[in-house]
Design goal:
mainly alpha
Length: 149
């Protein structure tokens, strides 16, 4: 399989994951706020703001990867997704270290499903690697080619 095909596949897969993960959070902001609260990482006064803003950032960044014909917009979406993955992965790692047994809140808002664990960390690491490849590709495509003369 050609590298270009792999990069397009990575862009589509990561973009779809973030779009699809954002939709239930946007549709059910109260349930997502509860999921954010369970991580016990934010001061209470910031939980609702994070729960309202974060899914829209996820949706926008995912759409940038899926729909933008511009390498600059794809790079921006990939950079935002990398930042989100860094935050999410850190939150999961901290709470695993604390011994909390909570639902991830990543793809389902049901508190009985999708527990955080090493698999969550591995998934985020793979997503981050794919997103980093998309970012590098978009940045390379956005650099004007110099002519030798």
């Amino acid at each position: 399989m050609k590298m270009r095909t792999l990069l397009v596949a990575a862009r589509v897969v990561v973009g779809m994951i973030f779009v699809l993960a954002a939709l239930p959070k946007i549709a059910q902001p109260h349930e997502f706020a509860v999921a954010v609260f369970r991580y016990r990482l934010l001061p209470d006064q910031f939980v609702n703001a994070a729960a309202i803003l974060m899914p829209w950032v996820e949706l926008t960044a995912g759409l940038c990867l899926l729909l933008s014909p511009s390498p600059a917009w794809r790079a921006a979406g990939a950079l935002i997704i990398l930042a989100l993955l860094a935050v999410f992965t850190t939150a999961i790692a901290v709470d695993l270290h604390r011994g909390l047994d909570i639902a991830c809140g990543c793809f389902s808002l049901d508190p009985r499903t999708g527990r955080i664990g090493l698999l969550s960390l591995a998934r985020n690491t793979i997503l981050a690697a794919a997103t980093a490849a998309v970012l590098v590709d978009a940045l390379r495509a956005d650099i004007p080619r110099r002519r030798p003369w």
